[in-house]
Amino acid sequence: MTGRPRKGTSVRFAPADGIAPIHASDQVLGLRFNIEARYGGTVEVDLADVHPRPFAIAFAGALRRQSELGGSLGARSTIKQHLQAYLRFFAYLREHSTAKTLADLRADDIEGYEAFLEAGGMKPIHRHTVLAKAILALRSIDADQADLLDEGIRRRLSYTSAQSAGRSQPRDAYSPFVARQLRDAARADIAKIFRRIGKPLDDGDGDANLRRVTDEANARIVVTGRLSSGDRAFKHLYFMRLRRGLPVSTLAEDIHGHYHLRAIDIPPLLTLLSLETGLEIECCKALTIDCLRNPGHGTIEIAYEKRRARGAEHKHIRVRDGGIGTPGGLVRKLIEVTAFTRQFVPSDCLWLYYYTGRTQLRAGVDHPHVLVDKWTRSHGVVDDDGQPLRLVLSRLRKTHKALWYLKTEGHMARFAVGHTPEIAARHYADIPSLRPLHEATVAEAFSEVAAAAGPVILTPGDEDSWHQSGTSSKEGSDVDALLSGQQDVWLAACSGFDRSPFGEPGEPCPQPFWGCLGCRNAVITARKLPAIIAFLRFIEEQRVGLCGAEWSMKFGRAYDRIAKQILPAFPASVVAEARHEAEGQALYLPPEARQ
Known about the structure:
Layout: E1 32-36, E2 42-46, H1 53-67, H2 76-96, H3 107-119, H4 124-144, H5 151-156, H6 176-196, H7 208-224, H8 232-243, H9 251-256, E3 261-262, H10 266-277, H11 281-285, E4 292-293, E5 299-305, E6 314-320, H12 327-337, H13 339-342, E7 352-355, E8 360-363, H14 369-379, H15 396-407, H16 412-415, H17 421-429, H18 435-453, E9 456-457, H19 460-469, H20 479-484, E10 493-494, E11 522-524, H21 529-541, H22 548-569, H23 572-583
């Protein structure tokens, strides 16, 4: 950039500003170093004892370049994953390859490594990601030293794998039953947390010495932020409580918990925040104290960073704002109760808390799995099978989405908040926990279609209503002719024998006589029940002479229609009378019934 930028003056760049600096060649000393990741802290890299040594040197340089500003590796956890993938690749080369330098590496080594991972039982997606890390490093090496790699291996680096990576198994949501337990447990604990903070430990009712020592310990925390176990004030308080038979096993946590959040407080706070907002758990962990913006009527925006969204990392979501039961109120209260801790930990991270294990104040949430398990056990949270729940925080976003899907009844325009309908349907609606709902919906839809395509069933009451109205829902039909028997066929009255949905207009109906049981032109009244019951008896008798598949193909649909739809529609007394009448008459059937 030329010159110093001034207000009102356009910024101008020189051609040299677009040239990337040339990297110095990697030295042997570069095998042991630290990487300051853009997210998550420091990564200690030690490849000094790794063989083949030329590979270790080259891959160490590639790891540094990819972790620099503008590189593809930004998070500490991602850098460590790449480092572990390199070690796995080196172990394969030592055992199965003759390559000692990068110039000796061939495309067959990459193919052999992929086959080795597959033979080890690694699933396609996992195999793809592990292989990709080694290939990305080799691409970086090739870009840094153009003539080092063989031409064949350079062509092989143009793609990751010739095999399909397949489709990943979608992360499932928790059921509404589990979500309700988690929400109730989190709200109960959060209310206790905020009542506790701001009220110093008060001991020694009627005991002046204990009260004096307690006040001294509180005063020390007010000044220094924390009280170590070696501090004189802490020792005095500990032994004085011990001599009086008061609890001391959690004294450090109890006394600091009146000034700071504690590590055990983080799981309920994270759980409720993620369940209420639907934010990814890593985004919840990365919230800062300036995340609340643009307040509205009962709502506010939470600004957050989603590192996975390359090019659109900075996002915001509008949430409810009110008491601590709302996302906006919860975040505001967290900012308030961590203000004292922030005097001793200069960080803008929302999550500041006291960690008992090392008697220190900490910023940011690392791996709270042990704390999460302890919290769910303390509340007796169980899964759908009644077993203790193993809570995975990353499933809370899917749970929020699944609950919203149920609330919107699958209306995609309302459900797809923050996503395209295609992404919302594939990632958040097509999940195992919602599959029973989808299957039940499809079955219900098929049932409605089948019922709509079937005959009109008139009970005696409905038949009287038709007589009184003098009209029919069937276009072009005559009520008197239908109900008097003038248009009767074998099992029903037909409102359009020459307008069959199974044939051409003007042509006679081509269906066998029991096709009326699935025809929308048919009208079934109580007058036809004896014939229908007699026919039902006939098709039951046919089971003896026909194999199961043949009987089901010929009569299965008619049997289900009679037994499950027609007979249940009539009163029991009407059906009983029809059965009695059917027993006293001989049933004449057309020839096609016995063919």
